[in-house]
Write a structure and sequence with these properties.
nine-stranded mixed β-sheet; GMP Synthetase, Chain A, domain 3; 26 strands; alpha/beta; globular
Length: 518
C-alpha cells in the first residue's frame, strides 16, 4: 500500500506548480502557449488517452521526435501513469533505433512527422503495438494511419494509480565502449534528487525564461533544465531548430535569460551575422557541457556578453546527469576543470584498488549519490561492474587539485564527445573494420573549433588494397549515424602499440594534436 500523503513523483511536481502559478506561462513552442493550468490539463488528458490505449505502470513508451510542446507533455503524462519514458536519439540509424526498441520492450512509440518513417522501419519485429503521431513546433499534418496526439486528449483525465518515487521513470540508452548501448534506469526519486542539485548549484529559478534548444532526448536538456523549470515554475521556450539565426531571434523575442548549449553552439552564436544586431540584454545565465570550453572562447563570451554568468556542467546519463559544476566565479580561475561535486553528489578519484589518489595524480572519477541509476536494464553483469567497490564508476579519468576541483583528462571507455553527442570509439572502429581493405583502425577524438572533438579514424591499409579518406567516409554512410561518421581519416603504415599489442591511443592523440584543426 502506498502513502499518497507523502508521494513525490515527477507528475506531482507539475500539479503543485500549477497550484502555485496557475496563470503563468509554462510552455511556449511555435504558436502554442500553455499556462501551468493548461499544461497540467493537457498532461492529464494525454495520460487518460494513453491509459485508454492500455498503457500500464511500468510499460515502456519510446519517443523519436524533435523538441516540441507535445514531447514535454508526453514526459509528464507518462509520469502520471507510472509508465517509463524511453527517449531515442533521432540521429540514430534504423538498426540502432531498432535495437533500443527491441531491448527496452517498448509497447508504444511516439514520433513526429520528420521521424515517422524512421520509427516505422525501426519498430518492425519489436514489441511496439501502436505508434502515436506528435505535433511539431511548426505546422505539420498527422501521418496517415497513426494515432494522433489530439485524439488521445479526447479520452478524459488520468486514472488514479498507486505510484511511488521509487518506481522507474525513464530508461535512457547511453553510448558505451561496447558495440551496443546500455539502458540506464532512473527512478522518480533519483531524477528529483538531481533537480534539487540543479536548483541550488546552477540557480534554476522561478523567474527564469529558459530557451530549450538541445534535443530533449538528451537527459541534459530534459532533466537539468526542463524538469527543474517545471519544478520551480519557470517559463520554458522550446525549439527543435537549434540554428544560430533561430536561437538569436527567440532570445530577443522572448527575453530569454537562461540558455544551455555545448561550446560548439555558443561559438556558432557569436559567429552568426545576426549576433551583433540581436538584443541579448536579458540573457544572464549561460550553461555549457559535453566538453570543456576553450579559454579563448570563455574570454570572448565574457567580452561580447558581459552580463552573462557561465556554468560548466559535467556528468553522465547514469547520474541524471549533473555530477559536478564549475560556477561563474571560477570560470577563468579554474578554466578547463569540471568544478566540484554538486549538492547531492559525493565524488572521489581512485586508483584500481579504490584508494584515493593525491592532488595531480590521475584516477578514475567515481560517485555516490541518490541521483544514480538503479542499474542497466536487463544487464546485471554491467550493473555489477559499474558499482564495484560500492561506488559508481564513471569510466572517466581525471585529476583533483588541493581545492577539490576535478579535471577530466581522458576517458577510460574511449568516449568521444563531439558537438554535444557521445560517440563510442569502439562502435565506429567496428563499422570501419567492415570496410574491405582496412587492416587496423583506431578511432580517437581530436580538438576541433566547431565540434570541440572531431571523430578521427587512424587507419592502416591492408596490403594490396587502396583506401582514400573519401572511400572510407562513403563506406561509413548508412552504417553509422551522421554524428558518428569520422570528420577526419588519417592513413598510416602502423599503429603505435605497447609490448602486449595494445594500441596506444594516447600517443596517437599527441602525435596528431598539432595537425588537428584546433
Amino acid at each position: 500500500m502506498t502513502n499518497d500523503l507523502a508521494r513525490h513523483t515527477l507528475g506531482d511536481l507539475l500539479r503543485r506548480t500549477k497550484q502555485r502559478f496557475p496563470e503563468k506561462l509554462a510552455i511556449r513552442c511555435g504558436s502554442v502557449d500553455w499556462t501551468y493550468t493548461q499544461f497540467d490539463e493537457v498532461c492529464n488528458k494525454l495520460a487518460g488517452g494513453l491509459a485508454e490505449r492500455g498503457i500500464e505502470i511500468g510499460d515502456r513508451v519510446a519517443v523519436i521526435s524533435r523538441n516540441s510542446h507535445a514531447f514535454a507533455a508526453l514526459r509528464f503524462a507518462l509520469a502520471r501513469l507510472g509508465a517509463v519514458l524511453v527517449p531515442i536519439n533521432f540521429m540514430l540509424s534504423t538498426d540502432e533505433a531498432h535495437y533500443i526498441l527491441e531491448h527496452s520492450g517498448a509497447r508504444m512509440l511516439c514520433v513526429d512527422s520528420d521521424f515517422a518513417a524512421l520509427g516505422t522501419a525501426a519498430s518492425v519485429d519489436t514489441s511496439v503495438s501502436e505508434t502515436v503521431w506528435l505535433p511539431s513546433e511548426g505546422p505539420s499534418d498527422p501521418v496517415p494511419g497513426l494515432t494522433t496526439f489530439d485524439k488521445l486528449l479526447e479520452k478524459g483525465d488520468a486514472p488514479p494509480r498507486a505510484l511511488t518515487g521509487s518506481m522507474l521513470a525513464q530508461i535512457i540508452y547511453t553510448s558505451g565502449t561496447e558495440s551496443r548501448p546500455k539502458g540506464a534506469m532512473l527512478t522518480h526519486d533519483a531524477i528529483i534528487s538531481e533537480y534539487v542539485s540543479c536548483l541550488v548549484d546552477i540557480e534554476v529559478a522561478e523567474n527564469d525564461r529558459v530557451l530549450h534548444a538541445l534535443p530533449l532526448y538528451h537527459c541534459a536538456q530534459l532533466d537539468v533544465f526542463l524538469g527543474p523549470c517545471v519544478y520551480v515554475g519557470a517559463t520554458s521556450v522550446i525549439t527543435g531548430k537549434p540554428n544560430a539565426a533561430n536561437l538569436l531571434a527567440l532570445m530577443a523575442r522572448d527575453s530569454i535569460n537562461s540558455f544551455f548549449a555545448p561550446p560548439t553552439v555558443w561559438i556558432g552564436l557569436m559567429q552568426a551575422p545576426q549576433f551583433e544586431s540581436t538584443d541579448l540584454s536579458s540573457l544572464r545565465k549561460g550553461y555549457y557541457g559535453a566538453s570543456i570550453m576553450p579559454v579563448e572562447v570563455l574570454k570572448e563570451i565574457q567580452r561580447r556578453m558581459p552580463a552573462v554568468r557561465l556554468w560548466n556542467l559535467y556528468g553522465q546519463t547514469e547520474i541524471a546527469p549533473v555530477a559536478t559544476v564549475l560556477k561563474p566565479e571560477d570560470q577563468l580561475r579554474k578554466a578547463g576543470t569540471a568544478g566540484r561535486a554538486t549538492l547531492n553528489v559525493e565524488t572521489r578519484l581512485v586508483d584500481d584498488e579504490m584508494n584515493d589518489v593525491g592532488p595531480g595524480e590521475i584516477g578514475e572519477i567515481v560517485h555516490r549519490s541518490p541521483q544514480l541509476l538503479s542499474g542497466y536494464y536487463k544487464d546485471a553483469e554491467r550493473t555489477k561492474l559499474a558499482f564495484h567497490g560500492g561506488w559508481f564508476h564513471s569510466g572517466d579519468l581525471g585529476t583533483i587539485d588541493e581545492e577539490g576541483y576535478i579535471s577530466v583528462v581522458d576517458r577510460k571507455k574511449d568516449m568521444i564527445k563531439t558537438g554535444g553527442e557521445n560517440v563510442a570509439s569502439r562502435e565506429v572502429e567496428e563499422a570501419i573494420y567492415g570496410i574491405t581493405g582496412v587492416s587496423e583502425v583506431a578511432v580517437i577524438g581530436l580538438p576541433d573549433p566547431k565540434w570541440i572533438e572531431a571523430v578521427t579514424a587512424v587507419i592502416v591499409t591492408r596490403p594490396g588494397h587502396e583506401l582514400t579518406e573519401q572511400s572510407v567516409l562513403e563506406a561509413c554512410a548508412g552504417k553509422l549515424a551522421l554524428f558518428k561518421i569520422p570528420k577526419r581519416v588519417i592513413l598510416i603504415d602502423a599503429l603505435p602499440k605497447n609490448p602486449t599489442g595494445k594500441v596506444l591511443k594516447r600517443e596517437l592523440r599527441l602525435k596528431y594534436l598539432s595537425s588537428s584543426k584546433a
